[in-house]
Structure formats: structure tokens, C-alpha cells
Structure to design on (315 residues):
């Protein structure tokens, strides 16, 4: 009798998800604690579970001749060579809904930090200074412009309603918003929005979508927020716009190179930088683990049905 398919978990996922996977019709190797040893488990692997740390390259796939499934516990697939996987007939799945609430809440937190200009006050209070001068603005009455209007941007827009915020969006794949958000062309959005909020998927065509030219079209004193992918934004152009005063501030959860040791934006006091933690809440990671295991178990069930001999299960 052939052994059960082997699923290798390369990156940490929620422990309850590992337990659910172990209860399924498969063998499980949790290699997340020893990434240097991942290679020795791949020769026999039927499935591979990753988050962001493991880069599923063509070279890694070549070490896994029996691989049928790559499952990413997260939204994007930019750490997976999808073309190489599909050329091998390897199915690639992810968990697009798991991070929606976590990233939406972080996005709104960024808006409030920027518009209220809270960073200087936080720093002054920590340093023992009691600086109570009037500064910052209200979020109410502002216009937020979404670059990309998918699941997360829509959740942000829904949550902005009670703040009295107007929302507009640019997304070439969306013909009707289906809600109160008004659609715009990119240049029009940049000129109109008080906050430009980036939520687009990264493709080879839209790298540095917000470059120096696009940033120059933003309203003077506007804010830029990126919670999508770092390469969508030209960080050098952002740094220059902040130095010149054209932008009032920026919040970046993602960077073109991570960790961003050489990014020119890090030294600017008007930048809120965070280490790509939009999805990194306990609730979000529980959902990601639950959803990715559900995808693996679904694929295992389909594979078992395909492998069953003709007439199997028929009385």
C-alpha cells in the first residue's frame, strides 16, 4: 500500500492549523523551525505550505519531483514562481480573504497617525516634553483615493463611512464600484485625493506605478499610504517629495527590498514605517492557517478521488 501523501509546512502557521492538517489523510512534516533543512524533505513532498519567508523558485521546485500543490497562507503570490509551477502541472493556491480585516484596520490607523500628525507628539511626550500646541487635522471631510479597488480597499472604504470620508478609486479592472466609491482615472485621482492609498496587485507592468511623475501630480500636502507591495512605489521619489514639502507624510508597511536597510524614506520624520505586518494579527494568522489547510485538504480529497480505482465506493 502506498504511503499517504506528504505535506511539508515550510513557514510557521497557526498551531491549530497544523493539528487540523495532521488529522487529514496525509503525513505532515513541520519544517518551519529549521528552514535550512527544508530541502531534505522536498524529494517526497506532495504538498508545500508557505507564507512569505520561503521563496518557491524554479530551483526549489526542481528539488520536489512529486510536488502537486503549493499553498500560500496569505494574499499575494509574489514569492511563488507561478509560471514554473504551472509548467510542471503544480496547482498553486492562496488565502485571499484571510488578511482583509487586519490590513484594513492597519490602513485606517495609518490615516489617523498621518492626518493628526501624531508622530512628533508621541516622540515629544516620550522625551519628557509636554507639547500641546494645535497640530494635525480631522479625517472627516477628507478624500481618500484607492489605487486598486479589491477586497481590502473595499473593506477600508466601508469602514471609512462613519468617519465622514469621501472615497474615490482607480482600478482598470473595475467598471463599477458597486458602492459609494467613485471611479477615476489615475491622474484625476492623484490630483483629487488628500490620501492616496495603494492596494493594487504587483505585476511586471505596474512596477513604480507611483513614480516621480505620478507623485508630482498628487495634491500638495497630500499623504501616501502603501499596504500592498513595495515595488508599486518609487521610494526615492517619495523621499524627495517629502524633503521638498510636496507630500506631508507617508506610511509604508511594504518596501521594494525587505528589510529596507537602504531605503531613503526611513530617515524622514514624516514617515511611518512598519515591517510588512498588515496581516500579522493573531486573528488574521488563525484565518490564514485555517484557510490554507482547508485548501490542502480539498486538494487531497480531489486527488484521492482521482486515484480511486473505477467503481470504488460504489455499492
Amino acid at each position: 500500500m502506498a504511503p499517504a501523501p506528504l505535506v511539508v509546512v515550510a513557514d510557521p502557521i497557526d498551531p491549530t492549523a497544523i493539528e487540523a492538517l495532521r488529522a487529514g489523510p496525509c503525513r505532515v512534516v513541520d519544517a518551519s523551525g529549521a528552514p535550512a533543512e527544508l530541502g531534505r524533505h522536498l524529494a517526497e513532498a506532495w504538498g508545500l505550505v508557505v507564507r512569505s519567508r520561503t521563496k518557491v523558485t524554479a530551483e526549489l521546485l526542481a528539488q520536489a519531483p512529486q510536488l502537486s500543490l503549493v499553498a500560500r497562507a496569505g494574499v499575494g503570490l509574489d514569492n511563488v514562481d507561478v509560471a514554473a509551477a504551472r509548467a510542471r502541472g503544480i496547482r498553486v493556491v492562496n488565502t485571499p480573504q484571510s488578511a482583509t480585516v487586519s490590513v484594513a484596520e492597519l490602513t485606517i490607523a495609518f490615516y489617523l497617525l498621518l492626518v493628526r500628525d501624531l508622530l512628533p507628539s508621541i516622540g515629544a511626550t516620550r522625551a519628557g516634553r509636554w507639547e500641546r500646541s494645535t497640530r494635525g487635522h480631522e479625517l472627516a471631510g477628507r478624500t481618500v483615493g484607492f489605487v486598486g479597488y479589491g477586497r481590502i480597499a473595499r473593506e477600508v472604504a466601508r469602514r471609512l463611512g462613519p468617519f465622514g470620508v469621501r472615497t474615490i478609486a482607480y482600478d482598470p479592472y473595475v467598471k463599477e464600484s458597486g458602492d459609494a466609491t467613485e471611479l477615476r482615472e489615475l491622474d484625476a485621482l492623484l490630483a483629487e485625493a488628500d490620501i492616496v492609498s495603494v492596494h493594487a496587485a504587483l505585476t511586471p507592468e505596474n512596477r513604480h506605478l507611483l513614480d516621480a511623475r505620478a507623485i508630482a501630480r498628487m495634491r500638495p500636502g497630500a499623504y501616501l499610504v502603501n499596504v500592498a507591495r513595495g515595488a508599486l512605489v518609487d521610494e526615492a521619489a517619495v523621499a524627495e517629495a517629502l524633503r521638498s514639502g510636496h507630500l506631508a507624510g507617508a506610511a509604508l508597511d511594504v518596501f521594494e527590498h525587505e528589510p529596507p536597510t537602504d531605503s531613503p524614506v526611513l530617515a524622514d520624520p514624516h514617515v511611518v514605517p512598519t515591517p510588512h505586518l498588515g496581516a500579522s494579527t493573531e486573528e488574521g494568522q488563525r484565518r490564514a492557517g485555517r484557510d490554507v489547510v482547508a485548501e490542502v485538504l480539498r486538494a487531497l480529497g480531489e486527488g484521492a478521488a482521482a486515484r480511486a480505482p473505477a467503481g470504488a465506493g460504489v455499492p
